[in-house]
Amino acid sequence: MMDSFFLLLQGFETALTWQNILFCFVGVMLGMIIGVLPGLGPVSGTALLIPITFGMEPVTAIIMLSGIFYGSMYGGTITSVLVNVPGEAASVITCIDGYEMTKQGRAGAALGVSAIGSFIGGIVAVVALTFLGPLLSGVALKFGPPEFFAIMMLGMLMIVALMGKSLVRGLIAAFVGLLLSMIGQDLVSGEYRFTFNSMELMDGIDFAVMAMGLFGISEILLNAENPTKIKNAGKVKGLLPRRDEWGATSKAIGRGTGIGMLLGVIPGANSIIASTFSYILEKKVAKDPSRFGKGAIEGVAGPETANNAHSGAALIPLLSLGLPSSPTMAVILGAFIMHGLTPGPALFTKNPDFVWGLIASMFIGNLMLLILNLPLVGTWAKIAMIPYKLLFPIILMVILVGTYSLNGSVWDVAMMLFFGLVGYVLKKLDIPMSAMIVTFILGSQLESSLLQSLSISTEGFMIFFTRPISAVIMFIAITVFALSIYSGIKNKRGQLAADVEM
Amino acid sequence: MNSVKPSVWAGIIILCLGIVSLLMSLQYTYSGMVGPGPGFFPVWLSGIIIVLAIWYILESIKGKNVSAQDWPTGQSLKQILFIIMSLISYFILFLLVGFLLAAIIFLAILFYREYKWYVTVSLSVGITLFIYVMFNTVLKVHLPSGGILF
């Protein structure tokens, strides 16, 4: 425990260099902008900025990219509350009571409460990361290839089970993602696979190219179909709730923090599940549930806290196990690899400066966001008013140039456009792209851990069931899988099972 | 509605993908000296994809778990095709005449329907130059100012 504390202090030393503060700020600012603007989500936003990080130190790069991730959670709230248009999927539920409050002239209180809740949720989640991360990675250091294979299988199946309305479509996405990751040179044998004798495919498909296409271009196309009309927001006055609301609000924030953290650690339980869950819980425990939908402040505080606690907690499995729990995490994992870092349990011992610098930066980043949100909320509202007809050509242009700048290759641009079209069609068919990008990034690790396990095994596939830890994990994975087949047959897959970016 | 649902077509495409990748995977070494070879994982993946594709086609024919999304028609279809065409023309222009002209023309196409011509021109030129300068000087990413033609 004390160790973590001292290491964290050292982390602040890294995070407080002027350079890291600057890029942390850039990251959270961009995150806010991405959160506020429709048509650009965190996945494509993060992928877009990867080329910018090429010249940076790894720690600075990842500080900025994660800033985008948690910053976008704050930003998404503003438009939900002010104009009833969620900037990000996780804030959909905030619209219900948040916009009601705006209609009653209480937009300020709604925004103030969500900024404070987000801050508390975010900070508590980072504290949990500080102490749980090293513990978990300590356990995971003892894992061999079979355990890692089992963990990745579990993560994959959880994502498939929780995202998307149909099990078969989720599985298709996951396996096609794995197949795409096989393209290029095989790291174990050196053999080239699925290259169709093309020079460009020998290096495999760049994950950033895929992310920008699948999530960036397709989003623009979907928006073009039913453009969101944003009307003008009124002035925001006052940022604090009424005195008699403080009690209920702080309890809602507390519960939201708990829910968000718990769900953040589970792969596939995305932040929209966290915020929805929190909303349902708040409604259940409220003395007078009929207030919900009519501007109940707990209906804003709870969910907004939950989605921020979720985004902080999502870093726990990423840093300690190397397991991304959502598409944005997968893109950040890709950035890790690009900067020569191997995510996984060894990270805490091998690159302590990096890990603790990143964790410390999240404290700073959350504080910056609180300051950016409370007094400047009106400015953000104005950014949300930028007309979409002006915005979308610029976003397209930036995606096109960003893709080109990855490797200076026209092939990448063509590939990205191709994935854009594929992404649009997949969205229409309701095949979850999230599952695809996560498995795509995990693909080579999944294969090598499987091959390693099988080569040390004397009884073939049984190795996964004879080693106790992997047996337990495999058992959980199989249970999850069986449950999702069962719920598929019974047609019980509910509203929660949405394919969202977070 | 068409006689064949889009999801059935998608299933058939995925099935073909699975079959092609299975045929290709079978050419790689399935099992090597110390254990499974580079062909092992792809063979299994392709096999599973084939099974899933068939399952998906059957589910689609029965109309179970269908996607709630509508395919675009009329005005929105036109809008989408318009964006796709302008993206493709940017790509071709980029190859032929380089970034500067391609970007200006691409932005102008998209802005033209919404803004007056002089606004369109100044926006397109301004944004292009801004991106060009940013990437070339600040981010040190060279964007080609000429293409095949000049």
UniProtKB/TrEMBL annotation, chain A:
Domain DUF112 as annotated: residue spans: 21-437
Residue ranges of the TM segments: 20-40, 47-70, 109-136, 148-164, 170-189, 201-222, 259-281, 329-348, 354-374, 386-404, 461-486
InterPro entries: DUF112_TM
Keywords of this entry: Membrane, Transmembrane, Transmembrane helix
Tagged with keyword Magnesium: no
Family annotation (Pfam families): TctA
PANTHER family attached to this UniProt entry: TRICARBOXYLIC TRANSPORT PROTEIN (PTHR35342:SF5)
Name under which the protein is recorded: Putative tricarboxylic transport membrane protein
TrEMBL record, chain B:
Domain DUF1468: 9-144
Keyword Metal-binding carried by entry: no
Top-level lineage group: Bacteria
Keyword Membrane tagged: yes
Keywords of this entry: Membrane, Transmembrane, Transmembrane helix
Segments crossing the lipid bilayer: 7-28, 40-58, 79-111, 117-135
A matching Pfam family: TctB
Listed name of the protein: Tripartite tricarboxylate transporter TctB family protein
Species assigned in the record: Psychrobacillus insolitus
